[in-house]
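Record Lysozyme, 321 aa.
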Amino acid sequence: MQGRTKGNAQGIDVSHYQGDIDWKKVAGSGITFAFVKATEGETYKDPTFMRNAAGAADAGLLAGAYHFLKATSAAAARREAQFFYQTASQAAKLLLPPVMDYETNPGNLSDANMNAVARAFLEETVRLFGVEPILYTGNAFANHFDTTIGSYSLWIARYNASTPPDNAKAWTKWTFWQYSDGSSGGTLPSGSRKVAGINGNVDLNEYAGTKEDLLRAYGKEEDQPMTDAEKQQMEELGERIAALEKHVNMSGDQTPPGWTKTSASAAMKAGIITSVNDKGMPEFITIQMLYNAGLCNAELIKFFKEFSADTRKAIEELLKK
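=>
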């Protein structure tokens, strides 16, 4: 799989083992995202989940929840997914996809049965959350999964400073790489494994892209940075709106021709225009205004001509100008 890249977004994953966390200090140390443990098995809820989920999100990090899978059957996996959803859905502002942490095989299952368990959990998670989850696993453990699991994004654990994770049957690239447990493996771009705001060790992760890429993939629409092309489009739209306002900003003393009521009302029914003025008369949205604004193309002119003789006559008068 690919290695780490300078400029990639940095993150952590936490549970109750990290104790109390000062999330503002975490955010100030260059950390962009955080995965927070929510549940394990069918009954265990991490006691710090709600506090950590809220703290990370309020500090401006992209936060997500993960579940440690213990199921040994597809039915149990679905129950675990339901428990995970019941817990994680109580937290607001979780923008990262939910995560299935599958890194042990307590039932000594065959690979086929492990894949059945994984699929059951992942499919139930999709049904409940409405988004595709991420699969977290270890570098060697990843080879238990077949290509039917490969459509899900991979969060891989390999504590190594320079050697990237191995290719697996289902994946040849990672979306997130857990490259350190805080005591071994790689380091943050600063050269340290310590994260401000956390006493002791914490797992370190890297996203396969920049902070901007991460926001574009998972952030809220208003959080996503606007591209230069989008900025140009917004400026052009503003200019068009300003020009249009010069045509449609008629004073309240002006009375439109009588023929406009029939034609504009019909246009509303057809869905071509959607509003009239507050008196119920089409004083602002009229054929005259549409024409002045350059919106009466050949198709629309043909449309209006079909209403009545008066409407047709009015249109023809406009076209003579």
